[in-house]
Amino acid sequence: MPCIMRESAMPAGRALWEIIPTNSAPEAEPMKRNLCILLLLLSSIVGAAMAAETTTETTSADSQIAITGITVNPDALMRGDTGTVTVEIKNTGTSNVAISRAELYPNGISVINDKTYDSVGTIGAGNTMSFTFTVQANTADGTYYPVFYLDLRNGGSTRYSIPVTVESTGIQVSVVDAPETYPANSKDTLVLSVGNPRESSVSGVTVTPGGEGVKSTQTAVFLGALTPDEEKTATFEILASQSTDLTFDVSYRNGNNEHHATLTVPVEIGERTVEPDMVVNNIEVSQSGSTITLTGDVTNAGLKDAYSVKVTVDDPATATDPYPVYVVGGLESDDFSSFEVTCNAQGASSLPLLVQYKDEDGKTFSETVTVSLSSAGQAGTAGQAPADISSGGPQGGRGGMGMGMSFGSGFGQIPVVEILLVIVGGVAVVVAWRKGYLGKIRDRFRK
After folding, report:
1. Beta-strand relationship, 76-77 and 110-111
2. Is residue 287 within 8 Å of 344, Cβ to Cβ?
């Protein structure tokens, strides 16, 4: 049977020759029939090879694309945060791959720029390409899995699920150290603790104080980044003029999203015993002519150190040489120092003993002890009832030791008993040496 060949359209722009029978002379029919059969076999072989080649291309394109990197920023979004999901791919094959589009299917997370990669292009052999999608966590806390989809132009696709965490725990702020009461217009120290209980880091942590009637020497304290489970402290010096609420605003960033935490600390105006507190004890008075000598001890009973401590007298007494003002200097908490002051107080039955000092901020304080000159024996405490101390005549004061002995001014501080014991001991040693007792004792030990 005669036949003819014609070109037939095939997929992917290829051509296939079809064999169509036709009429021919009877004598040539066996030869032509064999030729037609041969051409049919050849066309079948070519068609199968072309189909196999097309399938190989599609399979090869799928296998050439590899996901080489996934980045979610920030690591964990807080509710309402905006972040990014970046996917990096690589063509691991030896030929180019045409990419039609790339998408990120939400699956619980909103995708803001879902149309950005509707048309991509070709990725060359060995090259990489990245796709960045903007997402928003407008959902409840949990872990979600949006799907990255890559559509290949010549058929085939790539899919990959990406975990995105939504976790809304904020940073924690607490008071580490703060006074119970604040003396009016006096500087006090307050310490805060700022901790990050999240599983991801936060950055730009800044603590700012505020409140009506409250001033701080620091307008803000910058702590910087806090890694997971990290804690830092912020110290403020506060001056309060009234009872109020002191508010601390703590701002921080999760990725590019700003968040705030607030802490309110009540401020109560009142007196405190933690400040330096001068107490005067063991006051003794002696008089020589018109000069009165006052001796005693001054102790810092407060919880803070005192500076520039001075002891003198006030009106109607007049401070005189040799000790018009006794400078103690610094006194730590629970420390004490002796003092000696000389003055004149003609016709006075009592006189004020003045103790002046400064706190750590340089603020000056003063406390007064009223010392009586009419009777003997009592000690005075700063700011309390007057001391009733008698001059005891020209050589009174620390007065007798019960044997008619009397010392004036500074001699009352001499350890007389200890000195007498040392002298007696020395005399006993000399007598024993002269009597030969020491030699006998030495010979006995030698034996």
Report:
1. unpaired
2. no
The span from the CA of 56 to the CA of 47, in Å, is 14
Q: Is 328 exposed, middle or buried (0-12, 13-18, 19+ CB in 10 A)?
A: buried
- Other Cβ atoms within 10 Å of 228 Cβ, number: 13
Q: Which of 115, 116, 129, 118 has its CA nearest to residue 153?
A: 118
How far apart are the C-alpha atoms of 435 and 429, rounded to whole Å? 10
Does 3.90.550.10 match the CATH number of domain 278-413?
A: no
What's the CATH superfamily of 187-267? Immunoglobulins (2.60.40.10)
User: End-to-end distance of the chain based on CA atoms, in angstroms?
Assistant: 153
pLDDT attached to residue 47: 55
What crossing angle do the helices spanning 437-446 and 416-434 adopt, rounded to 10°?
70
- Per-residue tokens: 248: 């601390």
- Indicate the fold that domain 65-166 takes in CATH: Immunoglobulin-like (2.60.40)
Where do the domains of the chain lie? Answer: 3-63, 65-166, 187-267, 278-413, 416-447
Q: CA-to-CA distance for 342 and 128, rounded, in angstroms?
A: 93
Preceding peptide of 322 cis, ω within 30°: yes
**Burial level of 274, CB count in 10 A (0-12/13-18/19+)?**
middle
d(CA 15, CA 50): 10
- Helix, strand, coil share of the chain (percent; to 5): 15, 45, 35
Which positions ≥6 away from 132 have C-beta within 8 Å? 84, 85, 86
* pLDDT score recorded for residue 210: 94
Per-residue pLDDT at 183: 83
pLDDT block averages, 10 residues each, the chain of length 447: 48 46 56 70 60 47 88 96 97 93 94 93 95 96 96 90 96 93 86 96 97 92 97 94 94 97 93 78 88 92 88 92 93 92 89 91 86 55 38 34 36 60 75 68 62
Please tell me if the domain spanning 187-267 has the same topology as the one spanning 278-413.
yes
CB 114 within 8 A of CB 104: yes
Tell me the torsion sign for CA atoms 411, 417, 420, 421. negative
DSSP 8-state assignment for residue 260: E
